[in-house]
Design goal:
2 domains; alpha+beta; homodimer; 26% helix; Arc Repressor Mutant, subunit A; elongated; DNA-binding
DNA sequence: GAGTGGTCTAGACCACCTT
DNA sequence: AGGTGGTCTAGACCACTCA
């Protein structure tokens, strides 16, 4: 719905509302009303340009806004798509990614991108209480929901606790392997979360533009002796996750 | 540091790295090295434009990127500033905003923006287990750290549990008032968190641009009888908060 | 009133995805 | 090969903040 003529420069429609917000609202309500289903592709930017009679930059502003809200996402140089629903993550439950995604009627998958032995830098050495330089397992994995990559995780494991870890199938639940193969039982979990932007190396692996908003989840798991079992950085697409915690003092 | 000539259009410096990312890196490292202290103001966009010899749109792209990362923020039509450190929020601890901000050597403040009695819409009525239309207290408050507004909260309280609530000083800890004045003791907390964009009404109260990335925290507190004491939506600036949870199965 | 960011236009070339 | 988004330019007017 073109707004007709608008003065160059200036500030938008007859109502004083910026054009890009008006377009945002149109698309948002199209999504809300189901005219654009989850996973559906939006018209191209140039198409929207001619449809609405506004400049491409303005169109893109509306699109960025919707992306920040988590309503749409882009596939690099392919197009803009409606975001699927987010998955709910509960850091107080010990079940891993694979289980809780299945519990929510979605299809998880995990790819091992790399595993290497890395000399512990200072900060990480502190976490594991080893001397800096001690070799540690570093795994990088990509996890997807319904075929869409949603997070990159970088896990550090002490090979003293899990020798020969690389010989197992690491394309599934690591927690399970550590439990069944190495008898490592997690009794304490420390979790940190904060909004972040996905920097180039992560963004490339997720096939998103660098700077896309994300959520960083840092997880440290301990066993009964207070040893660190897993030290894990998860970089999530911000529109793919929702955190839920339910705590009862009495229990 | 101007990169010299660049072809119009195209894709940036001799290294193939986009200009806006190069500028981002410059500013980011200036912040990291302390050349720009927390709270400091950046040069104006037009100043950066002449300094770097790039178009204003490109400058702004770098700025948006840094904003998404939480490194800088803007004050509407005033300028861009270096973000202060984020506050750590632990949903498993029962202490309120005022206490945990003070614990982190910062200065909190709270303003009551409005309090009104609102007929419960369906969703909210469900939460409180009352019939839709029952009048409930709605408070809107703005909370700041070191004088910078960081969150808007909308709290719903059942007046049946807290009659005459509006006669108390609501510019401080609500949890304390409910505890000491109404003997309401929270034994269970349910917390949901998700990245969001701050929509117009919230953005105006925080004095940020609509669409600024944020974090929504929804908190539901119950007493021993399972009654809902507080139902609270907190809209945070995304660069102001960091969530931390530490859970021990054994305790 | 000078300066700031906010919105907008109308072009351009490029790298990459898709077919 | 054609279309898509990604990057970039060089202007403009506006609403607002600040001194």
């Amino acid at each position: 719905m073109p707004s007709g003529l608008t003065l160059p420069g200036g500030r938008g429609g007859e109502d004083g509302r910026p054009h890009y917000l008006a377009l945002r609202d149109q698309i948002a309500s199209a999504i809300a009303m189901g005219k654009l289903a989850a996973g559906a592709r939006l018209p191209s930017e140039r198409q929207l340009q001619t449809d609405t009679g506004t400049a491409r930059g303005t169109i893109r502003e509306a699109l960025f806004q919707l992306e920040a809200e988590g309503l749409i996402y882009r596939r690099d140089r392919s197009g803009w798509y409606v975001s699927p629903p987010a998955i709910t993550y509960d850091p107080t439950r010990w079940t891993g990614f694979m289980s809780y995604v299945i519990d929510q009627q979605r299809t998880p998958s995990t790819e091992l991108l790399s595993i290497e032995s890395v000399a512990a830098p200072m900060g990480v050495a502190d976490v594991f209480r080893v001397v800096p330089g001690t070799p540690l397992h570093h795994l990088t994995r990509r996890r997807s929901i319904d075929g869409r990559a949603v997070l990159i995780e970088r896990i550090v494991v002490d090979p003293a606790l899990a020798p020969g870890l690389e010989q197992h199938d690491l394309g599934g639940s690591l927690t399970r392997i550590l439990g069944t193969e190495y008898a490592l039982k997690v009794v304490r979990n420390r979790v940190d979360m904060r909004p972040c932007a996905l920097t180039t190396s992560i963004a490339d692996m997720l096939n998103v533009k660098p700077g896309t908003p994300g959520l960083l989840v840092v997880r440290t798991s301990f066993d009964a002796e207070g040893r660190v079992i897993e030290y894990d950085h998860e970089y999530w697409r911000h529109d793919a996750i929702r955190v839920h915690v339910d705590l009862d003092i009495r229990s």
